């Protein structure tokens, strides 16, 4: 399969940048007065490193919930003598006026400010300090940057009612920005005079006026000898606009696409308009007309259209006006137009909705600035992944991950993206994915769960996690995953399906993991959460998957983890056990899970006295005769009693039932089991069983332990023989054979 760049290991530069940003104090900085970050005086960093530090910092704040932003981060770059910045990309609420102000002495060449809604007109003034060096500037979506706060003079009372008013700045222009060539003013606020703003710029090469409504664009002709790229996405076009565009003969990239859902739109693209572009814009290599309605037929007759091999040669183009092109376009945007379904399209890359390639091109082209289009493209990808097979899997995954990271707060993208991820990570695609890629998926899924309490997103995210090997693949985010799942399960109103998946995931996460993991999760409130779920199901008299998974999860989390066993007892776990047994006498799976758990509790010497009541001992004794789930329930009941017997006669603090009577029932039970039983149990260690061998206090406990070992090593030799040897079981068995107190049949089995 195609190896993508994203699949190779991270560069040393990236790893160092990441490490320094996560440990600023320990690396580049020290803390002044316990609050302000300061750069060590002997540090000098070139722009290659500083740019990466700033750009990665913005990325981390945006996409990594654990990463803590620093108030004084941008002040580290205030002095160009020690830190140089050249090309930086800042986004959203992460950047404020004082951050730009902090770096105003830098000679910036490229400054991208995307959706920085906290920036005000103060930052316009700061921009002036970069005017002599800036070549490329984006103010896309900075909706408040042309507003300043005005204190109204006069009346005192009025000042209290309305202390600051937002006033539009009218007098700012790009005067003095002598080197500026590339400018993005996308989604500029209404009321700013674009023509006046831009007039001082001598030779613009690229201009983006997305989402701005201008009735007169005649002023663009002042750059007809320099403009190579023009973007007028979602601008209401008219014949006048078209005539102006046709004069910009140097254009290589023209984007007049629109979101066809956004508003009523009078303009229709005609064959004549496309002909005009082809004839006049002879350098065109990229054209985007997505979302447009074609007024009259631009296509060749359908008989001719279907003929021959698919071709990108202009001469064979199914779109008639494009037959006049000198060579195929590098890119042609036809998303949500009828033209994308034609056979012969004269372009190397086409965005559209006809097939996977076109849809991926659309996601790639529109993710950064057009989430409204991207979410619809991802929805199409979702259908492709669900119904057919994706042929460009790695590219698809990478693009969806990027979109989810880029638009963390966009509900539509989070819903469609999380749904697409579920289908793109399922088992049939497993082989093609690297560890790194799968980790990226997990990160964005957890981001989604964190930011969105919305049911669809939560469900999609939980379902996607089920496509991973648990716990192994989630180990690197272990705490965070558990916290998020417990958070879902602790919500008062719950969606049944999410509850079921979340409990299943919790159970899988505590299965076969180290004890320190289990202890940590126990401290997060895992035991309490599961008992609450059980309590609720019991009140509804429902024994469903949630009930069974919750007991199973408790069985797993108490395995060789005394702290969690103690929590189970402290939170009235035994009361729930008895109530469940009484309410659901026929539920075998449930009985097995509950007794497996009590087996774990009984292994803890300090907790056994709490099991020593007439009621509990009677229940365990009666369960010895249970045929539920093969021998499992009977076996576990016998295990619990074996540990209790091992504490000796003096620990038997009850009159009823008699100890001898229970011992007799235990012997009978063990003798009734088939020694070749296949098992529904998984031992990570034999230690709790082995400790019952070298003792003479309770021969029946010794016999239960020997039976358990004999059964496991004979039915599953590959798994359990090495474990028995590794944990020193052989000498213990040999010694037991020599013991006078051991029963003959126990010795036989041991031999």
Automatic annotation (TrEMBL):
Keyword Acetylation annotated: yes
Assembly notes: Interacts with the ELOC-ELOB/Elongin BC complex. Part of an E3 ubiquitin ligase complex including ZER1, CUL2 and Elongin BC.
Family label: Belongs to the zyg-11 family.
What are the residue boundaries of the Protein zer-1 homolog-like C-terminal domain, all occurrences included? Answer: 404-750
User: Which keywords does the record carry?
Assistant: Acetylation, Leucine-rich repeat, Repeat, Ubl conjugation pathway
Q: Which domain of life is it from?
A: Eukaryota
Write the protein's name.
Answer: Protein zer-1 homolog
Keyword Acetylation in record: yes
What does UniProt give as GO cellular component? Cul2-RING ubiquitin ligase complex
| Naturally occurring in which organism (per UniProt) | Prunella fulvescens
